[in-house]
Design a protein that fits this description.
The chain has helices spanning 2-22, 31-50, 52-66, 73-97, 101-113, 115-129, 138-159, 170-200, 206-232, 247-280. The protein is mainly alpha-helical. The chain has a single domain (51-280), classed as Up-down Bundle (Cytochrome C Oxidase, Chain A), CATH 1.20.210.
Length: 286
Amino acid sequence: MALSAVTWVVLGASLALWALTLVNASIVGAAPDAFRYGFWFLGHPGSYLVVLPVIGVVTEVLGGSAKRPPFGPGAIVQATGSLAALALLAWLGRMILDKSLAGELFFLYAGLLAAVPAAVIAGNWAATVWRRPFRLDASVSFALAAALFLALGVVAGGLLPLGARSAGSAMEAAHMHYLFVGFGLFGLCAGVYRWLPLWTGRACDETLARVHFWLSFVGLNATFLPQYLAGASGMPRRIPDYPLTLADLNAAATVGGFLLGFAQVVFLFVVLKAVRGAAESGGAGR
């Protein structure tokens, strides 16, 4: 709760700094930099706070599918809090020490330490389903993929400072979206497919749900994996123009983005089909 309160305070300060930059005001002669650091002071730990409910969803989905209580729920809670705290520490060190060698090392080590609580969470999820019979349906597929993307996102974030061209590059955008879209969206879809029959009283169309999963999985990686490669080649974020040598990677990311978007249309169709079926049968639970 305290960390959440801090992020909202920083959000207000960031919005104030943004307003000042619009009128060319200056804070210690560097309003744009002040806004940038303030924004990321909010955004870096805030990204982990956003995915906090998704960790609970994935835990419940895997535990329910394995027909056993989640393994080590207390450790999962503590690791989740540690993950958010280390995310705050990582960017705070970057703000204070800036571009110096000590600052880069501090940011690197704090980012790598974030992989430890992430490994605790993933390890508890693995122990939950270890040697337990469960059906690999759409909800479990989304939950396992979400666990994979959480691991990839956290590890990639810790390794970003190792790249000389990673700061401000498309690699940062790819890392962030693997967490938000890969872990966040996939985890929420796992929860919807798990509990949709309970909400509506009707089983969802498993075939379409699996189509949604594979379209989303392929579309996500086709969108953001090329961004990692483009960022490693020096492509900055938020720049519409790029060298022709990166045209193929950007084209692949564009196609992947459309595929990922179309997959969510399939998701909406599955949900509406289940809701409509429940309405025609007289309501949920009948």
